[in-house]
Amino acid sequence: MAWRIGVDSGGTFTDVCLIDDDRGDLSIWKVSSTPDDPSRGIAQAFAEGIERVGADVADVSFFGHGTTVATNALIQNRGVKTGLITTKGFRDLLAIGRQKRPDLYDLQADKPVELVSRDLRIGVSERLRIDGSVETPLAEDEVRTAARHLRDAGVEAVAVCFLYSFLSDAHERRAAEIIAEEFPDAFVALSSQVAPEFREFERLSTTVVNAYLGPVMRGYVRALSGKLADAGLDVAPQLTQSNGGVTGFEIAAEMPVRTVLSGPSTGVVAAQALGQMSGIGNLITFDMGGTSSDVALLTDGSCRMVAEAEVHGYPLNTPMLDIHTVGAGGGSIAYVDNGGLLKVGPRSAGAHPGPACYGLGTLEPTVTDANVVLQTQNPTALLNGQMPIDRGLSVAAIERLAQQLGLGVMETADGILDIVTANTAKAIRLISVQRGHDPRDYAMVAFGGAGPVQAARLARELGMSRILIPRTPGVLCALGLLMTDLRTDYSATQIMLLDDATPDMLRGVFDGLRAQAEIWFNAEAIAPEARNVTLRVDMRYAGQNYEIATDLPTEEITAESLVALKDSFLAHHQRLYGFVAEADAIQMVTYRLQATGSVPKADHPKFPHAGPDASAALTGSRPVWMRDAGGFVETPIFARDLLLPGNVIQGPAIIDQLDTTTVVPPDMVATVDLYKTLILEYN
Amino acid sequence: MRAPTETTLNPVTVEVIGSAFSSAVDEMGEALVRASYSTNIKERRDCSTALCTATGDILCQAEHIPMHLGSFLQFVPKLLEVYSLDDMHPGDVFIGNDPYAGGGTHLPDIVMASPIFVEGALFGWAINTAHHSDFADRGHAHIYQEGLRIPPLRLDRAGVRQDEVMRLFLLNCQVPKERVSDLRAQMAANRLGIVRVQELCRKFGSDIVRDAGKALMDYAERKMRAGIAAITDGRYVFEDVYESESLEGHLDLGVTLTIAGDAMQLDFVSPPQVRAGLNVIYTALQATVYYAVKAVVDPSVLPNAGLARPITINAEPGTLLNCAHPAAVDGRISACQRVVDLVHGALVQVVPHRVTAASCGSVHVASFSGTRPGGGLWVYLETIAGGSGARYNKDGLDAVQVHMTNTSNLPLEALEAEYPITLLQYEFAEDSGGDGRFLGGMGVRRVYRAEAPCRVQIMGSRLSSRAWGLDGGAPGKSGAFLVNGNPKAIDLSGTIDLVKGDVFAVVTPGAGGYGDPALRDSAARAQDAKAGRRPAR
Questions:
Q1: A148 vs A274, more confident
Q2: Which DSSP helix (H) or strand (E) runs through A391?
Q3: Is residue A124 over pLDDT 80?
Q4: Number of DSSP helices (H) and strands (E) in chain A, helices first
C-alpha cells in the first residue's frame, strides 16, 4: 500500500485528495480552513483523511501542499517589519517605482502599501558600472551601521539590492556576511539570488517582497512540518510554487516570493494532467470560484511561463505560470450604473452574506441568483440538496434591476450571465489572442464551483467547440498536487549578439545554470533518471527592451541550435507584431533553465465502457430558461456520480454533483470518457 | 437622465462590444511598446492608442496619456478634407504631427491613422500617437523652429510605402534609425486594431458594432451629464499664475466655470500667445478640460467622444490657451497642467472632497542630446514626476506623474546602457511636499552626471510660484534645475551645455497640503520626522 496525498488550503475550505497508488482509488475530503493558523486545518484534514480511508500513516509516500499563506500575507499586508539596504542615492526607488500613478483618472486612488517604510530604507556607498566593474567599492562600515540600525529598529527581515547586482553579486554577498555578523537572526534576501535580472526597480520589488514574506513562510512551514511529523508523516512534505512545480519546504521558506500563485498553479497542473489523459494538448483553463476566475492557456500540454508580472500591485520578477485573474465569480454582484448600463462585479457577496437566494439579508443580485432565476442552477437547494435556498429572493433582486433597465426579469438574468461571460472572455482573450493564439484551436477545462455552470456560454463567446469537465471540479487543485513534479528555475542575464555568438559561449552560460540545478537536484535527492532540464533564451532585436522567450533544444548546443533559435525568434516576432526587421541585429538577453524532478504520478484508472445510454443517471427534470427558445424548456437532470464511461447526453441537460452543476445547452452534446471526464461538444 | 439620442440596442450587447473596444486599444498599446526601439516608447511608454468612427469620433481611447487625446480629436476630420473616400484603400497608412493642420498637440507627437475596411466599406480608424524623441535642441520662437511640420499625409498606399515621404521625414530627424523603428511599432499597433475590429464586425455585423459605438458615446454623455447635474449650479471663478524657464516674470491665467443643469461651460482667460514654446493649441485645451472634468465628475466615464458633449470650452483665439499660427507649442504640457489646476480650483468651491490640493503643476522635462563617437546623434528625453496634491482625508502621492501625463521613468540600468550619462541620485525631495493636516506629495531629485559633452534643454513650471494648498494647507515647494549645484547657470533659452563630469540635477515641485497643519495627527508627525520628511511651510 502506498498513499499519495494532496492538500489545498484555501480561504474557506481545506481540500484533501488521497490516492491509493496500488488500486488507483481516489478519495476527497474537505474540512473548514483555520485562517488564523492554516497548519491546524491542514493537520486535521490530513489526519481525518487518513483515518477515513483506513490508511496507515506509514504508507504515505508523498505529501504535496498548495497554500495561500504567501499571497494572503501580501494582500493583507501581514508580512514582517522589513529593512532595505541599497545603493546610496536610490533609497526611495522602492516607493517611486516607475513613477506612474495608480489610476489614470481617479484622484482618490492609492499606491500599494510600501513594504519598507522610509526610515528603514538605507543607502550605502557602493557602485558598479554597466560592464560589471567597480566604480565605488562597498563601504563595509556603512553596511555594518545600517545592519545595527535595522536590528535596533526591530526589523525581522532585510532586503539587499544594489545596482547591477545581476552582473556581479560580490557586493551583495559581502553585505550579507556583514549582516550575518551584526544581526544573525535576520532573514536576508539578496537581489542577486532572488531575481538576478535587468531593471532595478522590478528586481528590488521582488527582493523586498521575498524578505517581507520570508519569516512568515518560515514560521508557517516549521509549524506545519512539526504538526505533520507529530501526525506520523515520514516523508518530506512538498509545497507548490507559482511555476506549477513543487519544492521542499526549506526552499519554499527561502524563496516565498515564488509561491504567491501556489494555489491557482496547481489547478493548471491538474488541467494539464487531465488533458494528457484525454489526449488533448491545447487547453484553456477556466477556474471560477465565488469571487474571481483564474484562466490560463496551455499549448501542446504546457502553460507559458512568465518571468515578470504584477501581483496585488507589486511587480514580481519570478517564474510564474501565466495565470490571469479577473474579478468575476458566482458571488459577483450585478448593478445598473448611473449611465444606465448593466455591470457585474468585481464586488462580490462572497460566502457571507452570499447571493440573495441564501436569505442572509442581501438584496443585491449575483451571478448565482441569475442562474437560480433561470433555473440553470437548482432553484430550491444547492450542494446536492444540502443547502436550501429561496428562488423568490433571487427573482425580487433581479426584478429591481430589470425595472431600471426596462427589460424583463428573464432577459435581465440572462444579460447578467452574458456580461460575466464577456468579462471572463476578456481575460481569456488577454492570454490567448493578445499573445497570438486563437481560442478556437483550444479546448476549455472548466472547474471551480462556478466554472461548469458558465463554461458553455463562455466557450460559445470565444468560438471554442469543446469543454472538459473533470470528475471533481471543486477540488481539482488538491488533485493537481498529486500530478506535480519538483521544479525550480534558474536564470542569467548577459547580452550577446546572436550573430556573434558561438555554441561555446552559449554552452558556457548554460553550464553555469546546470551547475546550480545539479546542487538543487542533489539537495532534493532526485534520482538521476528523474532529472530533466529545459532551456530557453529571451531574445529581442537590438534596440528593443522586451524579449520574446524562445525555446532552445536541450541536446548538445551546436551551430544548428543557433540557427533554430533565430528562426524561432523571427517566427514569434512576425506573429506578434506583423513584421521582421531583416537588417537588424538580434540579441540574446536572458538565459533560463528549468529543472524538473519527475515524481511518480497518481495513476488514474480507466473505467469500463458502459455504452451510450445515460438513462440510469437520469434523476428527474425541471424547466430551465433558454434564450433561443424564448422561455422555459423542460430539461432532464442527471446525477454526475451515476454517469458511466461512454454515456452520451444530448442537450439541453443539467448534470448535478456535490461541488458544481454542469449546464449542457441544446446545441451541445456531453459524453463521458474512460476517466469519467465529461466532454461537452457543440454539435 | 435620458440623452436626446436614445438607441434601442440591447444594453448587454453594447457592454460586450465596449469591452472588446477597450481590450483592442490595450492590445494595440502593448504591441507598440514591445516592438519599439526608442527609450521614450519602449520604457517610458509615451504613446497612446484609440479607435475612431469613419468620421473620426473617438470610440475608445486607451488609458495611457491623457494629453494624447488632443492628437486624436481633429486628425481624421482634417485628413478627410484632403483625401477623398474613393481614394482610400485597405493597407493605407496616414501620418501627421502639425497642430495647425489637425495633427498632434506638438510636433514630436506623430499621429498615425489606418483605415479599417469591413466588407469593402470604410468602417472606422485605428489611430495612435507616439512621442518621437527627436526634434531636440531646436528653437521655440515660432513653430517653424520646432521641427518638421507634417500635415496629414499618406505614408503607405495600399500597403506600399511612399518612399519620398519617408526620405523627407528622416532627413529632418536627428535619430532616423529610431524613427523608422518607432513608426514600424506604430504600424504594428494599428494592424492589430484593424484585425480586432474586423473580427468584431464579422461576429456581430458591422451595423450592430456601429450602433453599439454610438450607444457607448450616448452612454458616456449620459454619465457625464448625470455627474454634472449632481453638482450645484453656479459660476465658479479661479485664477493662478504661470511661469516658465523661458519667461521673464509670470502670466495670469483664469477660468470661469459655469454649471447649469447637466451642462458645464468653461471660459478661460489668458494673455496673448508668447514667443516661446509654451502655447496651447485648442485640441490640447480640450483634452485637458475633458481630463480635468472627468476626474472630478466621474472617473469611470468611458473615454470616448460622448463625454465631451455636455462641455463647452471658450478661450480667445491668439491667447496662450488657444494659440494661433505660428505660435510655438512644444512645451504646452506645463500650461495644461495649470489648466487642470484652474478647473479643480474652481470646483473646490462646490465639491471640495472630490478634488485635491494643487499637484506639482508642471511637467519637468530634460531633453539631452549629443554626438556619438561614430558621428551619429543621440537624443534622450525624460519627464520627471512630481508631487500629487493632498486629499481631504489623506496625504497626496509622492513622486508620480500627475494629470496630463503618465509616462514611466527610464530605468537606470537601461539609461546607462544607451547614453553617456550616469545617474547619481533618484530620491524624494524631502522638503517639497506642502504641510497640512494631510501632506502634499513630494517631488523628486534626479541627478545626472555627463560622461561626454552634451546639451540639455529643459522645460518646466512652478519654478518660482508654488502649488497651492487647500483649507489651510501650505503650498508645495517650487522645483529647480541645477548645474553643478547652481541654478543661475540656466538662461531663458533653457539650453545648457554640459562637459564631461558636469552634474545636472532636476528637482520637481511638491504638491499642496490639505487642512490646517496644526491638526495633523501626532503619530503621523512622528513618522514624518523618522522618515526625514520636512514639509514645506
A1: A148
A2: helix A391-405
A3: yes
A4: 16, 37
Query: Angle at the Cα of B358 (from B356 to B360), degrees rounded to 5?
Result: 125
Say how many CB pairs under 8 Å bridge A and B. 189
Average pLDDT over residues A461-483: 86
Taking CA–CA distances from A92, the nearest residue in chain B reads: B427
Q: Which residues pair with B111 in a beta bridge?
A: B96, B129
H or E element at residue B194: helix B176-204
Residues of B in contact with A101 (CB under 8 A): 388, 397, 400-402, 406
Q: Which three cell numbers mark B391?
A: 486629499
ipTM value, please give it: 0.95
Is the Cβ pair B12, A342 closer than 8 Å? yes
Which residues of chain B make contact with A108, given a CB cutoff of 8 A? 391
What are the pLDDT digits (tens) for A216-256? 999 999 999 999 999 999 888 889 899 888 888 988 899 99
CA-closest candidate to residue A88, choices A145, A154, A166, A167: A145
Closest listed residue to residue B372, CA positions, set B144, B131, B175, B214: B175
Distance from CA of B481 to the nearest CA of A (A): 18
Q: How confident is the model over B242-269, as pLDDT tens digits?
A: 999 888 889 999 999 999 999 999 999 9
> Are B36 and A578 within 8 A, CB to CB?
no
- Phi and psi dihedrals of B240, rounded to 5? -155, 170
**Backbone dihedral angles phi then psi of residue B22, each to the nearest 5 degrees:** -70, -35
Residue A529 DSSP symbol: G
Inter-residue contact B263 to B312 (CB < 8 Å): yes
Alpha-carbon gap, residue A65 to A14, rounded angstroms: 10
The secondary structure of residue B364, as a DSSP letter, is E
CA–CA gap between residue B35 and residue B45 (Å, rounded): 12
Does B354 have pLDDT greater than 80? yes
Q: In whole angstroms, what is the distance from residue A479 CA to residue A30 CA? A: 13
- Cα dist from B154 to B55, B215, B498, whole Å: 17, 31, 40
> Mean per-residue pLDDT for A22-41?
79
* Spatial CA neighbour of A342 closest among B110, B352, B18: B18
Which residue among A89, A199, A342 sits closest to B426, beta carbon to beta carbon? A89
Taking an 8 Å cut-off on Cβ atoms, the answer to whether A422 and B15 are in contact is yes
Residue of A nearest to B24 (CA): A434
Cis peptide before A346 (omega within 30 of 0): yes
For residues B448 and A211, give the distance between their C-alpha atoms in angstroms, rounded to a whole number. 31
Any idea which residue has 547657470 for its cell? B489
Pairwise CA distance, residues B384 & A330, whole Å:
44
Give A153 to chain B, closest Cα distance, Å: 11
